[in-house]
Every structure is written in structure tokens, then in C-alpha cells.
Specification:
This protein is mostly helical and about 160 residues long. It has a domain of about 90 residues. It is built from six helices and no strands. About 10% of the residues are buried.
Length: about 160
């Protein structure tokens, strides 16, 4: 007798009548106390940060170690230097993680050494090589740094429990 279309229209009509009745019975909500004229709530700062302002230091870790800032040329490196920067970071990580594993200690000076040694290694590695060789070395060093990650983290976890 009734089609699906008529059933849907009837259902919508019942719901809309119910909403209208609820609004008329309950009335409009009174304004909240926070919206009283004359009072101002603090606003969130939505200013876009200046991307030219770089952080001066690398910060402090959870363990309280001060991480040395990356070299200036790394902070200001352009897109063409991405592979060199990545290789420098891999060399730095290999050096510090190897030292952590060999000494079985995770003191701040061991965990976050200076970038000088990694920069020297980078200079020696990239002198006289082409882009393909750089990519191959980068790939090898990145995997080497990744392989040292778990053993170094285990040493640091054991060192900090003491």
C-alpha cells in the first residue's frame, strides 16, 4: 500500500516535527558566562613562524645530555647537498654508536660527541668521487648506522638503569 518513497517522506516529517517541538519547548539557550560583554579571553597566537629563524642549539635530551649543534654548513645546506648531509649524519651516528658499543658506556660525551671527526671522514670519503659513488657510499653507511642502532640503544638502556 505505501511505497518506500512515502515512508521516507513520512519519517522525515516526523523527525522535523520532533525537532521543532523540542526547540519550542526548551527555548533558546542562554548565553554562557564567558561571553559577557567586556571580558576577553586570551587568543591563540596563529602567527606563521619565520622559517629563516633557525634554532641555535640542538637541545637537551631526556637523559640531560646537551646535543652539539650541527655544523653551520649543514644547517644552511641547499637541496643539492642533501646526500652529503645525510652521509655526514650517517658517519656521525656510526662513530658515536660504535664508541658506545665498544666502551659499554653511554655518558653524554660518548653519546653526543663533536661533529669534527665525522666532518673529517666526510671530506676524505667524498674527495674525487662522482654522484653514483656518493649514493653507493651513502647507502652502505646508512645501513651500517642502522645495524648499530639496537646494540647501542641496549647499552644506553642498561647504563641508565644503573
Amino acid at each position: 500500500m505505501f511505497s518506500t518513497k512515502m515512508t521516507v517522506i513520512g519519517g522525515v516529517a516526523v523527525v522535523s516535527l520532533g525537532v521543532a517541538a523540542a526547540v519550542s519547548l526548551l527555548g533558546a539557550a542562554s548565553p554562557k558566562a564567558e561571553t559577557v560583554l567586556g571580558e576577553h579571553t586570551p587568543q591563540i597566537d596563529m602567527t606563521i613562524p619565520d622559517i629563516d629563524e633557525r634554532s641555535t642549539g640542538a637541545g637537551v635530551t631526556r637523559a640531560g645530555c646537551v646535543k652539539p649543534a650541527r655544523p653551520d654548513w649543514v644547517k644552511n645546506a641547499g637541496p643539492r647537498d642533501t646526500n652529503k648531509v645525510s652521509l655526514l649524519i650517517a658517519l656521525y651516528d656510526i662513530g658515536r654508536k660504535s664508541e658506545i658499543i665498544s666502551t659499554q658506556t653511554c655518558e653524554c660525551s660518548t653519546e653526543y660527541p663533536s661533529w669534527d671527526k665525522a666532518e673529517e671522514q666526510l671530506t676524505q670519503l667524498i674527495s674525487g668521487i662522482d654522484k653514483n659513488q656518493l649514493l653507493q657510499i651513502l647507502d652502505e653507511k646508512t645501513f651500517e648506522a642502522g645495524d648499530l642502532n639496537k646494540p647501542a640503544l641496549d647499552v644506553c638502556a642498561a647504563f641508565r638503569k644503573q
